[in-house]
């Protein structure tokens, strides 16, 4: 029921505010609304009532014989509208930073033909918005609306030598449209990389063409940030485009609106993770972006972090030779994991940290069963175990049997993994088989000659599908 859904969405401190709202002569449409709500607050604080409980509440509030289904429906419908108005008024009262109250005042003064009073309030609000060091797309839309109201106000002189409010309105509308178009186009391109659907953006080429005529220094920071991201998507997300978009974003980060920071940050991280999955070296850039997300309180969503993001942050920090930072991250952010995924995510993260510190036995002990039950963790965990086993073999050749059986079971597991794409299977199997080649070469030839290493390197370079290519290159040199 709509009323109960609305009431459940309120915070406890808002219940008393709603009582005051319902009791206000200006807002009150029926005294029954306040009586009924007070009964809820006293007897059903969680607002979890079925039809029978609602009927009982009505009879206790307004008399046993007064009830009809029609009266209850009207009461609940009317009270729901009051709660909706309360929510809208709260947004208005708490909107100081968005200039909503001032904008509505300017509109009201204009509609009442308040002359100089209207002009003064409009000009003051325009000056305040123009002076903002950080402008959101919505700021340009509000400026367009203000200039529009000023120009079409009957008291405005239309023939002045300075730029008229008509031209300024058009310029602000262009800026709002351009930023919004780039924002939506970036989101569409991001979705196209995941979904099969393709979006139509017929006016986007015209927008991009218009930007070529604009000096780079004249572009608002928000426009520049979205343009960099969209260009990366359009040209193709490769290492250079990603790094350029990331640098533009970091450079202008403090001058971007909060809501756009989160959207841009998420898209850039997703682009980086896509490149990383293709064995492109962007770990340092991703580490910078994740630290920026943490510093700006943008890593958590509803006070939660996914197990995949959690492990990615740790793995990237460890690869960037920041194991101590990674360990601090695990301790601080583990409480924000979903309870049923926490044990596996934390264990895998500690395994990454120990491995990159060279603590092979400690890393192996962390690879516990709950890790392998989590989606997206089974392959990375098995890859890590294979790396641990190979490094242990390099230290002590008596670990040959453990390495051999580990690679054999890993290969069989991947070959039967139906959820993996064909390319992913080929890349993982390529890794397993190349590790096996290194093992055989190091067993047959002690020490391994430079020529044998060159042959291994040549074979590795010929492989189209391969994960952990850099690690394999490093291990060839260590043979």
A few lines on this structure:
With 479 residues, the protein is mostly helical. It is built from 24 helices and no strands.
Topology:
Blueprint: H1 2-9, H2 12-23, H3 31-43, H4 51-62, H5 69-93, H6 100-111, H7 116-130, H8 137-152, H9 165-192, H10 204-212, H11 221-235, H12 239-252, H13 258-277, H14 283-295, H15 307-319, H16 323-333, H17 339-356, H18 360-366, H19 369-372, H20 378-395, H21 400-415, H22 422-444, H23 450-462, H24 469-478
Structural account:
The protein has helices at residues 2-9, 12-23, 31-43, 51-62, 69-93, 100-111, 116-130, 137-152, 165-192, 204-212, 221-235, 239-252, 258-277, 283-295, 307-319, 323-333, 339-356, 360-366, 369-372, 378-395, 400-415, 422-444, 450-462, 469-478. The longest helix is centred in the middle third of the chain and has 28 residues, at 165-192. The protein starts with a helix and ends with a helix. The protein is flat, with a radius of gyration of 31 Å. The chain has four domains: 2-94, no CATH class; 99-156 and 163-269, no CATH class; 300-375, no CATH class; 377-479. By secondary structure, it is mainly alpha-helical. Helix 3 crosses helix 4 (51-62) and helix 3 (31-43) crosses helix 5. It is 72% helix and 0% strand.
Unreliable segments (pLDDT under 50, ≥5 consecutive)? none
**Structural class given helices, strands, pairing?**
mainly alpha
Inertia-based shape = flat
- Give the topology string: H per helix, E per strand: HHHHHHHHHHHHHHHHHHHHHHHH
Could you estimate the helical fraction of the residues in percent? over 70%
Rg calc = 31 Å
> First CA to last CA: what distance?
69 Å
The major β-sheet equals:
none
Number of helices: 24
In what range is the share of β-strand residues?
Answer: under 5%
Q: In the residues, how many domains can be counted?
A: 4
How would you state the average pLDDT, rounded? Answer: 91
Number of strands: 0
